[in-house]
Specification:
Length: about 200
């Protein structure tokens, strides 16, 4: 099992990134909560990781904090929730917000996350209630946040692609991006504002 990676960010195209560790490029997928905390391309980063081994692939997931990885691992144990839905949840709400949704049995808030239907949301509330109380959350060492990377002319396209990868339909992704401040060009900020619009915040 790969517990963490420390290396230089080679590429970042949400929700995917490549980390160069000693000349070897590790491909990972990460929730948007992690992307918001990542430094710029070419900068060293440390990510907590989780490896999923399937018959046809080995998939590596990266997280800025131990709490994010812990919640991810708890989520994929829930029936009907795979890594893609778990990433969508962590991209749509913070760890603390998810805890509050479960504690308050706020199914409506969970349903607003792409890929989460009412039955899945209700199952999450029931199955996660006890697990969250036992989940490890003490060591929550976040990476230094630096979401001020230079804007890219392809920011809108990258943000659109990221929203599709997170489960939004093309029309919905386009509509959400239209709600973003036109002056915003950085991919991560475009995605952040679009997700806030989707959540009604």
């Amino acid at each position: 099992m790969i517990g963490f990676l420390r290396g230089r960010i080679a590429t970042r195209r949400p929700p995917a990134l490549v980390v160069d560790v000693g000349g070897i490029g590790y491909e990972l997928e990460a929730p948007m909560s992690t992307f918001y905390a990542l430094p710029g391309t070419g900068t060293e980063v440390t990510l907590h990781t989780h490896l999923v081994v399937r018959e046809d692939a080995q998939l590596l997931y990266g997280f800025a904090t131990e709490r994010e990885r812990t919640l991810f691992r708890e989520l994929i144990r829930v029936s009907g929730v795979g890594p893609r839905i778990a990433l969508a949840i962590l991209s749509g709400v913070s760890v603390d917000e998810f805890h509050r949704c479960v504690e308050r049995e706020d199914v409506a808030a969970l349903v607003r996350i792409p890929g989460i239907g009412r039955k899945t949301a209700e199952r999450l509330v029931v199955e996660m209630r006890d697990r969250l109380q036992a989940a490890v959350g003490a060591a929550a060492a976040s990476l230094p946040a630096d979401a001020s990377g230079a804007g890219s002319t392809s920011g809108q396209n990258e943000a659109y692609g990221a929203l599709l990868a997170l489960g939004y339909k093309p029309a919905e992704a386009g509509r959400l991006l239209k709600t973003v401040d036109p002056s915003v060009t950085a991919t991560e900020e475009l995605i952040r504002q679009a997700l806030r619009a989707a959540a009604g915040r």
